[in-house]
Design a protein that fits this description.
Chain A: This is tRNA-splicing endonuclease subunit Sen34. The structure holds 2 protein chains of 2 kinds. By secondary structure, chain A is an alpha+beta fold. Chain A has 8 helices and 11 strands. In chain B, strands 1-2-3-5-6 form a 5-stranded mixed beta sheet. Classes of the chains: A alpha+beta, B alpha+beta. The interface between A and B is large, with 41 and 36 residues.
Chain lengths: 290, 136
């Protein structure tokens, strides 16, 4: 882990979010934390198959990241409000002119696209005219030209991809406008055993995704979830929390059916605060096949 | 009052019978372990009950290269008999694991036998630590 660049986690209405793509990739590469993509389009959010940035992290994951000194949490609402209010005239002018620049660039690109389309249609029409002059036996071409003309594979490279960034007037991250350390919340790892299983698994290099699909809290992967199948469905329990045997039977049976093991675990609370914390105990459960 | 003790002894004896009559386990005995309030069953299954996935892969590779089947001898297992309606805690499981002698190799394991009122018994392998699952 790079010692200098801490990852900024935004706390917004009780949720922990990471907006910066570089931070997301650093989390995934160096802290085996993949998070859950939760970002969608601002309008018609359900008309979108794939979710994008930001990623949301679980509170216990955030706790573990703070403990291992990988990340810090900021009150993002307060950071934004103070950034908006304390904007000095110079940076305000710079921001407005940058918006204006983007707008001009977008207008220019649109104008180019329209001109390009118009020239294609014009040349098509010319061609058709020539064709009609030569012979009147091609009746179908005229129908297609009007709407599909711009899509014809006529050797021109598709201009869309390169302009995605140019047209993005609304930035996906406010990283350039909000000071990264503003309103950082004090580092206070929770002084309880809750989250100790998550911490233990992150510490031993396991990745986690939400486990609801398999009726548990975590699906636990031995490496990046894009490369591996999950090995465990895991639940954390308090040291003296009662676990119904029926839950172990159900969890164990389902896990075995999907080629996983059912993992339960937690940490024994230490007798006094200044004592060394006891290790996390975990138990892997599989159907015995008899 | 020996109520709780009688109860766990009854559960253990029902599981004992099930292992003996339905699953053909041999050399079965019910033992009381120092430090544990519940009796444990120890016995020898007719064939090896659990093989770690890495050993499984090694055995398959050996079979492929040597053309002969690998023989895995059955191992004695510790069985913890519980009733389905019971509730256990991590500390209870840890106490059972700690009271048992070390495994010959690999992680400590017990067979958790859950008994239901209709005398169905289901068996689960519980191992200490994060042990990757078998590739059935």
């Amino acid at each position: 882990m790079e010692s200098t660049k801490l990852i900024r986690i935004a706390n917004i209405s009780g949720r922990y979010l990471v907006f910066d793509p570089d931070a997301v990739s650093a989390l995934r590469r160096q802290a085996n934390t993949n998070g859950t993509l939760v970002g969608t389009t601002p309008q018609q959010p359900t008309q979108n198959i794939f979710l994008g940035l930001p990623i949301e992290l679980r509170p216990e994951e955030v706790d573990a990241l703070i403990r291992t000194n990988v990340a810090y949490v900021v009150d993002d609402v307060a950071a934004h409000q103070s950034a908006l209010q304390s904007l000095d005239p110079d940076s305000r002018r710079a921001y407005v002119s940058s918006l204006r620049l983007r707008k001009q660039a977008a207008q220019k690109v649109f104008a180019e696209i329209n001109a390009h389309k118009a020239s294609i249609t014009a040349s098509k029409k010319n061609k058709n005219k020539e064709a009609r002059d030569d012979s009147s036996a091609v009746p179908s071409t005229d129908l297609g030209t009007a709407d599909s003309g711009a899509l014809k594979p006529d050797g021109n490279p598709s201009p869309r991809n390169s302009q995605v960034t140019l047209l993005g007037v609304t930035p996906t991250s406010s990283i350039n406008h909000v000071s990264p350390d503003a309103h950082a919340l004090p580092v206070e790892p929770r002084n309880s055993e809750k989250g100790s299983l998550c911490q233990h698994m992150l510490g031993s290099g396991y990745f986690m995704t939400p486990g609801l699909r398999f009726g548990s809290r975590y699906s636990v992967y031995p490496g990046d979830p894009l490369r591996f199948h999950a090995h465990f469905m895991a639940n954390e329990y308090g040291w003296e929390e009662e676990i119904p045997i029926l839950d172990i039977v159900g969890g164990g049976r389902l896990a075995t059916a999907v080629k996983k093991a059912f993992l339960i675990g937690g940490r024994k609370p230490s007798a006094s605060p200044d004592m060394v914390t006891s290790p996390v105990r975990t138990f892997s459960i599989e159907w015995a096949g008899m | 009052m020996d109520g709780p003790h009688r109860y766990s002894a009854d559960v253990a004896s029902a599981v004992f019978q099930n292992l003996q009559d339905q699953h053909q386990w041999a050399s079965l005995e019910i033992l009381s372990i120092p430090g544990l309030s519940r009796p444990m069953i120890r016995g020898l299954p007719p064939r090896l009950l659990y093989l770690h996935p890495d050993d499984q892969i090694a055995a398959l590779a050996y079979e492929k290269s040597a053309g002969a089947r690998t023989q895995h001898d059955a191992e004695f297992e510790w069985v913890l008999a519980v009733h389905l309606s019971e509730k256990w805690t991590l500390s209870n499981f840890a106490a059972v694991m700690d009271a048992l002698p070390d495994a010959r190799k690999g992680a400590k394991r017990i067979v958790l036998a859950a008994l239901h009122n209709d005398s169905t018994v289901v068996y689960y392998i519980v191992q200490e630590g994060m042990i990757k699952p078998r590739q059935n």
